[in-house]
Amino acid sequence: MAQAESNPGNVYTLESVRKGLVRQEDTIVYGLIDRARFPLNSHTYEENYSKIPGFCGSLVEFVVQNTEAVQAKAGRYQNPEENAFFPEHFPLSIVPSYPFTQILHPGAASININKSIWKKYFDELLPILVASGGDGNYAQTAASDLSLLQAISRRIHYGKFVAEVKFRESPQDYEPLIRAKDREGLMKLLTFESVEEMVRKRVEKKAMVFGQDVGLNGDDEKKVKRKFDPSVASRSYQKWIIPLTKEVQVEYLLRRLD
């Protein structure tokens, strides 16, 4: 876990990881705002449109793979919070490794659900976030997609840290379910509907505040122009981000006693 940003002082408690999740909400909301300023720009995602020499794939795949390769060289993926979308294309890091505090079980490294995140992002989130049509800003669109995808992925895979802290605080609750490979029981133990509802409401409120065009005339809030529909932020948490985070937690816990 990144010492400077996610957990100053290397103190891992349920409260500290919850604060980390709250901070990541801001990043995701700003990412939604940034992506919403472009229309769909469907050519960004069409393999036959880009026709990049020596590369087979869409423009967004080209941008993501090459950006991740550069970031891998710079050591980004040495941080256990980071999970790449195309790890199979990784070069080795060329910078000295940083001694991140290792609190996760070694099996955590094998948990990467970015393929599911990728599919849900393009198939389900984008259609309700952006306007149809195109404006030609395909490279900028791909870069915006990458930033938002990385923020969402970081938040979902942060479930590994949440699960570890929960396990350490109450191992007697988790061990029997883990040994029985009881996915349903673990999911039930990890689910707090009141907390999830609070998170959804907070995210939507942040989207309302961060996503408004600020004026100086004291306009009534009902007349305020917004950069995107705030309910999209709440829906993204309800339908994808929270469920996938719990999926990561369950997968992590099932490996915890190996």
Description:
- The chain is mainly alpha-helical.
- The chain has a single domain (8-255), classed as Chorismate mutase, AroQ class superfamily, eukaryotic (Chorismate Mutase, subunit A, Orthogonal Bundle).
- It is built from 10 helices and no strands.
- It has helices at 14-36, 47-50, 59-73, 114-129, 138-157, 159-169, 171-179, 183-190, 193-210, 230-255.
- α1 crosses α9 (193-210), α6 crosses α7 and α7 packs antiparallel against α8.
- The protein starts with 13 loop residues before the first helix and ends with a helix.
- 30% of the residues are buried.
- This is Chorismate mutase.
- Keywords: Amino-acid biosynthesis, Aromatic amino acid biosynthesis, Isomerase.
- One of its GO terms (molecular function) is chorismate mutase activity.
Following the backbone from N to C, one meets helices and strands in this order, namely HHHHHHHHHH
- Tell me the structural class: mainly alpha
Low-confidence stretches: 1-9
How many distinct folded domains? 1
| End-to-end C-alpha gap | 21 Å
Most strands sheet:
none
The CATH superfamily name is Chorismate mutase, AroQ class superfamily, eukaryotic
- Rg on CA atoms, Å: 20 Å
Number of helices in the DSSP assignment? 10
> What is the CATH domain class?
Mainly Alpha
**Which range best describes the helical content: under 10%, 10-25%, 25-40%, 40-55%, 55-70% or over 70%?**
55-70%
Instruction: Output the CATH topology.
Output: Chorismate Mutase, subunit A
Overall number of strands: 0
Strand content: under 5%
Mean pLDDT: 92
Q: Any idea what the shape is?
A: globular
CATH architecture: Orthogonal Bundle
EC number: 5.4.99.5
Protein name: Chorismate mutase
InterPro entries: Chorismate_II_sf, Chorismate_mutase_AroQ_euk, CM_AroQ_sf_eucaryotic, CM_II_prokaryot
GO molecular function, one term: protein homodimerization activity
